């Protein structure tokens, strides 16, 4: 049997029978976000999504399900798309992280952002940042060559408004896929 007296410093006034609160262990992590180095002092269990939104103030990346099922939190890490809600921020030290806020160059939108606007590839817009980052990652992967392949490989990003045909049109425009319906 564990003797709680062994875990409480002598002379402390913590009442026996109550849990001794542990101070959360924080880590300093250096992240490269949208081309800028950011140093954060965070707990090891903080997700990349929460680090971006709550610690840095980049709220373009959305929290949808917080379980990796909707894709609203998609960001690019070293050019590859990931669900930031499933990734611990401390795991991405030294990686290049790009959010929706980091795509435009000044007033000039990224070509994928322009295509989404041109094709009305959004309605409410909540999923749009994740859709755009996922689409850019998809093109970076270089494995989707047809509309059906694009659709399949974008299936991790849910649009509750149903703008899928327009989203596919925008991706095809940027990718330059022929055979567009």
TrEMBL record:
Claim: Cytoplasm is one of the keywords in the record: no
InterPro entries for this protein: 2Fe-2S-bd (IPR002888), 2Fe-2S-bd_dom_sf (IPR036884), 2Fe-2S_ferredoxin-like_sf (IPR036010), 2Fe-2S_ferredoxin-type (IPR001041), 2Fe2S_fd_BS (IPR006058), Aldehyde_Oxdr_Iron-Sulfur (IPR052914), Beta-grasp_dom_sf (IPR012675)
Key words of the record: 2Fe-2S, Iron, Iron-sulfur, Metal-binding, Oxidoreductase
GO molecular function: 2 iron, 2 sulfur cluster binding; metal ion binding; oxidoreductase activity, acting on the aldehyde or oxo group of donors
Iron-sulfur listed as a keyword: yes
Short name of any one Pfam family annotated for the protein: Fer2
Domain 2Fe-2S ferredoxin-type: 27-103
CDD domains xref list: fer2
Name the record gives this protein: Ferredoxin
Source species taxonomy: Bacteria, Pseudomonadati, Bacteroidota, Sphingobacteriia, Sphingobacteriales
């Amino acid at each position: 049997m564990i003797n709680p007296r062994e875990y409480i410093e002598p002379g402390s006034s913590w009442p026996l029978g109550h849990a001794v609160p542990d101070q959360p262990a924080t880590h300093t992590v250096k992240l490269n976000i949208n081309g800028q180095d950011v140093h954060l002092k965070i707990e090891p269990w903080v997700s990349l999504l929460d680090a971006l939104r709550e610690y840095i103030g980049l709220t373009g990346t959305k929290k949808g399900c917080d379980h990796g099922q909707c894709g609203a939190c998609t960001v690019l890490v070293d050019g590859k798309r990931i669900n930031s809600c499933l990734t611990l921020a401390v795991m991405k030290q030294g990686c290049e992280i790009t959010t929706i806020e980091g795509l435009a160059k000044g007033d000039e939108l990224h070509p994928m952002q322009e295509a989404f606007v041109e094709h009305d590839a959004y309605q409410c817009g909540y999923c749009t940042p994740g859709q755009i980052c996922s689409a850019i990652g998809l093109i970076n992967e270089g494995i989707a060559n047809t509309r059906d392949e694009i659709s399949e490989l974008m299936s991790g990003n849910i649009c509750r408004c149903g703008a899928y045909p327009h989203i596919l049109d925008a991706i095809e425009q940027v990718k330059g896929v022929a055979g567009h319906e």
